Amino acid sequence: MVKHSVIVAPSLLAADFAHLADEVAAIEHAGADWLHLDVMDGHFVPNISFGPVILKALRPLTKLPFDVHLMIAPADPYLAAFAEAGADHILIHPEAGPHPHRSLQHIRALGKKAGLVLNPGTPLAHAETMLDLVDIILVMSVNPGFGGQSFIDSQIPRIAALRRMIDASGCDIRLEVDGGIDPRTAPLCIAAGADSFVAGTAVFGAPDYAAAISAIRGKPAVHEPAA
Ligand code: DX5
Ligand code: ZN
In the chain, at which end, N or C, are there fewer CB atoms within 10 A of the end residue's CB? Predict the structure, then answer.
């Protein structure tokens, strides 16, 4: 069994879009591990966000790995564009096209980490059949499309089942959770076997980003000494 440290990936969707450069700098300074980027097309999900041009603009501003969650269908024609724009991880939904296996192969061939995203109603079998091709499994604990929704408790036993599946496989796969993550829900997911968290509202909506990130990790905030 591969034991991972807890990762926190703030979701840019909840940031102040008029000051994205400042928000990215602040979140990096606050101790974020990855930056989660929610790409929405108004077709696969009922909301529109941003595309590769925003990744490209932000890429030189931070060393944080870009965890790119594609809520677009089809995704295949855009994988190379997101890779070129600076994505480090590219995560697809199996419902986004008829050949998710090929999409994951394509992401790996682009030299990026591949992720599979499971909606609250997506059977876990989708992950089971493609474990050898994924670096990250992302469990949606809300229906995708919007930040600020309530955590769906029924995802906890699914996280536990995925943990058993990953451990049995021996594959080195991160188990990430996205939607309604805060200091109350993250520990429930950690207990079930999750090791990585997307958090939008709970981080960007907090007055102290560092404290919010630490609270999701389940650790007291580490504040820099006053000058
Ligand atoms: C929802 C997105 C999430 C969202 C999370 O479709 O995938 O990443 O930004 O937002 P919160 O943490 O506010 O639920
Ligand atoms: Zn997301």
Answer: C
| Closest ligand to Cα 11 | 1
Are residues 182 and 194 in contact, defined by beta-carbon separation less than 8 angstroms? no
The model's pTM is: 0.96
Q: What's the CA gap between 143 and 118, in Å, rounded?
A: 10
Nearest protein Cα to ligand 1, atom 4: 147
> Quick one: which of 15, 120, 123, 126 has its CA closest to 62?
15
DSSP bridge partners of 118 = 139
User: From the CB of 155, is ligand 1 less than 6 Å away?
Assistant: no
Q: How many CB atoms lie within 10 A of CB 84?
A: 12
End-to-end CA distance of the chain, in Å? 43
Q: pLDDT tens, 44-84? A: 999 999 999 999 999 999 999 999 999 999 999 999 999 99
Is 38 part of the annotated catalytic residue set?
yes
Choose one of 143, 201, 209 to mutate for the ligand 1 pocket test, by most ligand atoms within 8 angstroms of C-beta.
201
What domains lie within the chain, and their CATH numbers? 7-217 (3.20.20.70)
What is the mean pLDDT of the segment spanning 99-106? 98
The residue to mutate among 70, 136, 198, 216, having the most atoms of ligand 1 within 8 angstroms of its beta carbon, is: 198
76 is catalytic: no
